[in-house]
Amino acid sequence: MLFFSIVLMVVKFAAYIITHSNAILTDALESIINVVAGGFALFSIYYAAQPKDENHPYGHGKIEYLAVGFEGGLVIIAGVAIVIRSVMGFFHPKVVESVDIGVYISLFAGTCNFFMGKYLVKKGNIHNSSLMIADGKHLLTDTVSSVGLVIGLTVIFFTKLYWLDNLIAILFGAYIFITGYQLIRESVNNLLDEADYVQLEKVVAILNKNRGEKWIDMHNLRVLKYGSHLHIDAHITLPWYDKLEQSHTEVTAVENLIKDKLEGEVEFFIHADPCLPISCPICSLKECPVRKAAFVKRLDWTLQNMLPDHKHTL
User: Fold this and answer.
1) Residues 3-37: pLDDT tens digits?
2) Over the range 170-199, which residues count as b (16 or more CB within 10 Å of their CB) and which as e?
3) CATH numbers and ranges of domains, the chain
4) Rounded CA gap, 121 and 116, in Å?
5) What is the pTM (predicted TM-score) of this model?
């Protein structure tokens, strides 16, 4: 990723030197961001992979979110700088040269960004890495910018309306600014442990499909992300008369199920609750020696009844 960003940066600045296009310069300046962010991302991925220790009992994965926020800040600065320079370009215009070469180079850069972006998003989803996904989406955003740049330069080539170069650069600068804002917002949300409903839906689907007979209900479900690691909290309602060893066996079965079905490293903390008489109508346990009410129906587990902190009832 870092080497790829350096090569594209050199190519884009070469295109700017040839063409003197502010629009191409916007693309080149953002490549500097990609290089700096790529270096920080490389360190962040290395640091996030370090094992847990006494000072970091949940691991080091959250540095990925810091890296995403850092990248977003750099992108915002670049967007503002691009807009300012482009506005100044209306007062100090330059003739754009060799527009056709600029089109070819931008098309090449956009194609490279597209395939690298797709690759990073795919790998990020496999490894649950928010940083890789963010970098991949950023490169896909660059692809959109490159397509717009190619269209704009083509119009300039045929119309000779060189003032369009500054207008295109301003539009790209605004687009880059919005991208930076989105990256910072994502970083802050992850640092504040915003609910990840994609992961929650996966966990709910796995538990609902593979639930054991003694798993009367599960509630107070939480999923926290620490980089590529997932920390899951939940309460499970089990028969109150079971011995501690039996309850432990059921809890271990839930943990193993999730770890087997979810990709990446998963840490599961489960609190076992004893069942109450209100649980009888939804408990499908056939041989219950202390049942207080007849079984009525088995409830499907959903986000609506698994997230709240209370036992399930009819």
Assistant:
1) 777 877 787 788 778 877 776 777 777 777 777 77
2) bbbbebbbebbebbbebbeebeeeeebeeb
3) 2-191 (1.20.1510.10), 197-306 (3.30.70.1350)
4) 9
5) 0.69
